[in-house]
Specification:
Layout (H helix, E strand, L loop, with lengths): L1 H24 L5 H26 L1
Helix pairs in contact: 1-2
């Protein structure tokens, strides 16, 4: 089970990095895009936190 959790954490960290790079490297994002990406990052952060807690237990 630990390997699956580690794999999921790695996946979500990669997705998080991709979104951050996209936002930071874009000069033409609309307010709606920024909000949407922020929401996606929030969801990813929650998933990562939940997986880290599950990994500890």
């Amino acid at each position: 089970m630990g390997d699956k959790i580690n794999t999921a954490i790695e996946y979500y960290l990669i997705k998080q990095k991709e979104i951050l790079e996209l936002v930071n490297n874009s000069f033409s994002l609309s307010i709606e895009d920024i909000i949407r990406y922020g929401e996606e990052l929030s969801v990813l952060e929650n998933k990562i936190t939940a997986l880290e807690v599950a990994k500890e237990n």
